[in-house]
Write a structure and sequence with these properties.
alpha+beta; two-stranded antiparallel sheet; 2 helices; 20% strand; cilium; FlgC; Flg_bb/hook_C_dom
Length: 134
């Protein structure tokens, strides 16, 4: 594998983790959302990755395959005085688990940082190789 392929592999991982962080941010922003006029509350989104071939050198990268909505039912709270209550007096909240999303955010952030470090290390190695020729 060429040293330059490292940048392609890490770059694809950084892009995928950036999309993952965006999905987590969206989920966290809507963690306290309640059902709207249509009776549907916000549903947590999950991101799924796929391995892809990168060039002809046998290296592989990653890309976002799909972003799906969770099927977990939202939390229902009995509050008949709320303007968002349904006919039975229940308010449906989103199905976002903030603790799970925070763990997901930390994991994505660490993966992002690790791929930046891989790129910096590869850059340093290439610069040192060039300096040897002087």
């Amino acid at each position: 594998m060429s040293m330059f392929n490292i940048f392609n592999v890490s770059g694809s991982a950084i892009s995928a983790q950036q999309q993952r962080l965006n999905v987590v941010a969206s989920n966290l922003a809507n963690a306290d959302a309640v059902a709207g006029p249509d009776g549907q509350a916000y549903k947590a989104r999950q991101i799924h990755f796929q391995t892809v071939a990168m060039g002809d050198a046998g290296s592989a990268g990653v890309k976002v395959q799909t972003i799906t909505e969770s099927d977990t039912p939202g939390r229902r709270v009995h509050d008949p005085l709320s303007p968002n209550a349904d006919a039975q007096g229940y308010v449906t909240h989103s199905n976002v688990n903030p603790v799970e999303e925070m763990v997901n955010m930390i994991s994505a952030s660490r993966s992002y940082q690790n791929n930046i470090e891989v790129m910096n290390t590869a850059k340093s190695l290439l610069l040192k190789t060039l300096q040897m020729g002087q």
